[in-house]
Specification:
Elements (H helix, E strand, L loop, with lengths): L11 E5 L4 H11 L3 E6 L13 E2 L2 E2 H6 L4 E4 L5 H10 L5 E4 L5 H4 L4 H7 L4 E6 L14 H8 L19 H24 L3 E6 H7 L4 H8 L15 E5 L5 E5 L3 H10 L14 H20 L3 H11 L3 E3 L3 H6 L1 H5 L3 E6 L3 E6 L23 H7 L4 H9 L4
Parallel strand pairs: 1-2, 1-6, 2-5, 6-7, 7-8
Antiparallel strand pairs: 3-4, 9-10, 10-11, 12-13
Helix pairs in contact: 1-7, 6-8, 7-8
């Protein structure tokens, strides 16, 4: 790391967001050196603290998506809490928020107000449906974003109802897209001095990754349906080995299709009438898939792995978390961190992604206690110990 500095050192983020999408955007910035101030309701905290598995009072999900942040309690419903936000605004570069449209405006904390206080401010606003449009005020979580964004429809098999995609990737995608938007806006601000606001939504993040589906329907009138087979007719999917392991494979290009056929002992297949064009492959691949499934079912995982490696067909064992923890490639990539935690000692979590050669990210702690940094932050704004004690007594912090 050059000069020991993190790439986002000096950037200060005020996170008025909870659950996953906003906090994930915040944690990505914290991992690369931004000072992220996480705001939570006094006495209650972010709802994600109570979601998912836990050990004692430690929520695993909370700890992962809020690692490395400072913790401030603040009641945004109260004018005194709103005043604290306004006093913070001149000292921050970015605000992340995920309230429904109009809520912050009702509290006097909307973009039009805050940008007057700090014209260089970047404000990222995350909702299920965006800030405009007929559904903009509707509530929604990842499942709703996936359903409305078109990805839920594509998951599962053709003879079964659509299967909910997991994990909650519209949240994570939106956090990632928003982080990219924040970095782009900061770049614009560095050049022009101008702040701006960002409109992110869960459904648009899901819709953005539907591959070629929009063009296929818009130009050809063809609705992409469920199933693992691609419309272009290349074989791929998941097969079980003789000893009970699931393996994913894919051959989405001509040279890979030829390798797969060589592996099956049918090197002439790609040149036959049934398989030499994408249109013919689409009609005939289902029969080939049955042969491939039989090939996997007749071999142990070790035999399958050795042969797929030999013919250089893209594949992976379908990994459980137990498989991940035992896998030598994960170990070689240092993809599981033992993150310091005051109660548990360490907490295993995914490592920082991506890996930068000169200024890599890092994780300092696995999520703070509610309001752990409240006194420090308020003192920096000029509040005296007596002021802070009174705010605490009134339930503002």
């Amino acid at each position: 790391m050059q000069n020991g500095k993190m790439p986002l050192e000096g950037i200060r983020v005020l996170e008025l967001a909870q659950i996953v999408a906003g906090p994930f955007c915040g944690v990505l910035m914290a991992e690369f050196g931004a000072e992220v101030i996480k705001v939570e309701m006094p006495g209650r905290g972010d709802d994600i603290r109570r979601m998912g598995p836990r050990e004692g009072d430690v929520g695993f999900w909370w700890s992962q998506e809020n690692r490395g942040k400072k913790a401030l309690t603040l009641d945004l419903h109260d004018p005194k809490g709103q005043e604290i936000v306004k006093r913070l605004v001149p000292h921050v570069d970015v605000i992340l928020e995920n309230f429904r449209p109009g809520i912050l405006e009702k509290w006097g904390l909307g973009w039009e107000t805050l940008c007057q206080i700090n014209p260089r401010l970047i404000m990222a606003r995350i909702t299920a449906f965006g800030q405009t449009g007929p559904r903009s005020h509707g509530p929604g979580f990842a499942a709703i974003g996936s359903a409305f964004g078109g990805t839920w429809y594509l998951n599962g098999t053709q003879d079964q109802p659509p299967v909910r995609p997991t994990p909650v990737y519209p949240d994570y995608l939106t956090g990632l897209f928003t982080a990219f938007g924040v970095m782009t806006a900061l770049r614009h601000r560095d050049r022009t001095g101008e702040g701006q606001w960002i409109d992110s939504s869960l459904f648009e993040s899901a819709f953005r990754i539907t591959e070629y589906s929009a063009s296929m329907y818009g130009r050809l009138g063809t609705v992409r349906e469920r199933g693992s087979r691609q419309h272009v007719g290349w074989p791929g999917g998941a097969c079980m080995t003789k000893d009970g392991h699931w393996v994913a494979y894919t051959a989405p290009a001509q040279h890979l299709f030829e390798r797969l056929c060589n592996m099956l002992g049918q090197p002439e297949l790609p040149r036959t009438e049934a398989y030499k064009t994408p249109e013919m492959r689409s009609q005939n691949v289902p029969g080939l898939l049955q042969q491939i499934e039989a090939w996997f079912a007749d071999r142990t995982y070790e035999e399958v792995e050795r042969t797929l490696e030999e013919f250089q067909v893209p594949y992976s064992r379908i990994m459980s978390m137990a498989d991940v923890f035992e896998d030598p490639h994960y170990a070689a990539r240092n993809m599981i961190l033992d993150v310091p935690h005051p109660e548990l000692g360490t907490l295993p979590q995914p490592a920082v992604v991506p890996k930068l050669s000169a200024s890599p990210g890092r994780v300092t702690h696995a999520g703070s206690e509610i309001g752990a940094d409240t006194d420090e932050i308020l003192s920096g704004l000029g509040y005296s110990p007596e002021d802070i004690a009174m705010l605490r007594q009134d339930g503002i912090v």
